[in-house]
Write a structure and sequence with these properties.
CATH topology of the largest domain: Rossmann fold
CATH superfamily of the largest domain: Class I glutamine amidotransferase (GATase) domain
Number of domains: 2
Structural class: alpha/beta
CATH class of the largest domain: Alpha Beta
Number of helices: 14
Strand order of the largest sheet: 2-1-5-6-10-9
Strand content: 5-15%
Largest sheet: 6 strands, mixed
Number of strands: 10
Length: about 325
């Protein structure tokens, strides 16, 4: 598991996207509501090339509490979206390179990826940004492998997200990695956002979904989440939705941005994480309850999704998980 990012530096530049700044503050900031646990394990410092204030893209001024020295001391450096036409101060680029070389994780929201690319930190890496800027990012930095079709990319020590709400998805992903699914779910619940959207989910739906009786696939998704231990596949889901398999698969992708198989696997891993955090069930029982069928299958899929073993995950998060809200 990645180390917990206790010290967080939030980089503020002229033209920063206020929405992105707000996301970082809402998740990692000192006043971020955390009703599920009284402490705030993250210490966030707004910083920039100079102390004072900056004017965001929205015209609102935001205070900058520290200079670039905060980046050098950070475990996690967050770069919000910004005006991509503005030149990036060379001193900031040097600070980002030095922090990364020193072991800090780098996280960009939206067009913040342009700043990481300018620093050379995305060379040879997979990355993403807001879909409207992906072509520009790829053209300006051809050494970056830009993926325009995902919400976020976790490349280990460097993480990039698409625009706006995808920044919240990525920040919750970091909390989930470092503090467990229950803590991340508590943050999501308080902010009234989905507790988990997979990074590989599509940024937007290209084909509008026609109206249909019943208001979409919501009832079928809820039913599936309550029956994860059963043998679910596209045939069972389509039958519940009263659709042909072909129509169901097309509508499912249009509404969720995922295939039914991808969605089911994500839900099963999430359920397994909750069981590992909140129960004393052995690994075989967790595999059964989550619908994997066997401990061996659980271990394979769990490791692919979390980069750790179920037993190691439980050892990390079992005692720290808060009570269910």
């Amino acid at each position: 598991m990645p180390p917990v990012s206790r010290d967080v530096a939030l980089v503020l530049l002229e033209g920063a996207v206020l929405y992105d700044v707000g996301i970082a503050l809402q998740v990692f900031g000192p006043r971020a509501p955390r009703p599920d646990r009284p402490d705030q394990p993250y210490a966030l410092t707004p910083c920039g090339v100079r102390r004072g204030t900056i004017t965001t893209m929205s015209g609102l001024r935001v205070g900058v509490d520290a200079g670039l020295e905060a980046i050098a001391a950070a475990d996690l450096v967050i770069v919000p979206g910004t005006d991509v036409t503005r030149p990036v101060p060379p001193r900031l680029l040097d600070a980002l390179r030095a922090a990364h070389a020193g072991g800090a994780r780098m996280l960009s929201i939206c067009t913040g990826a342009f700043i990481l690319a300018e620093a050379g930190l995305l060379d040879g890496r997979h990355a993403t940004t807001h879909w409207g800027y992906c072509a520009d990012l790829a053209a300006r930095f051809p050494q970056v492998r830009v993926d325009p079709d995902v919400l976020y990319v976790d490349d280990g020590d460097i993480l990039t997200s698409a625009g706006l709400s995808a920044g919240m998805d990525l920040c919750l992903h970091v909390v989930r990695q470092e503090l467990g699914a229950e803590v991340a779910n508590g943050v999501a619940r308080w902010n009234v956002v989905p507790p988990h959207r997979a990074g590989g989910q599509a940024q937007f739906i290209r084909t509008p979904v026609p109206d249909a009786p019943g208001g979409g696939l919501g009832p079928t998704l809820s039913w599936a989440q309550a029956h994860l231990r059963d043998r679910l596949d596209v045939t069972a889901l389509a039958r519940h939705a009263h659709m042909s398999e072909r129509t169901f698969a097309r509508r499912f992708r249009a509404e969720t941005g995922l295939t039914p198989k991808q969605w089911l696997l994500t839900q099963r891993v999430l359920h397994a994480r909750r069981l590992l955090e909140r129960t004393d069930l052995d690994i075989e029982a967790v595999a059964t309850e989550a619908g994997f069928g066997s401990a061996a299958s659980l271990r394979i899929h769990f490791r692919r999704a979390t980069s750790t073993r179920p037993t190691a995950y439980r050892a990390t998060f079992r005692d720290a998980a808060p009570a269910a809200a």
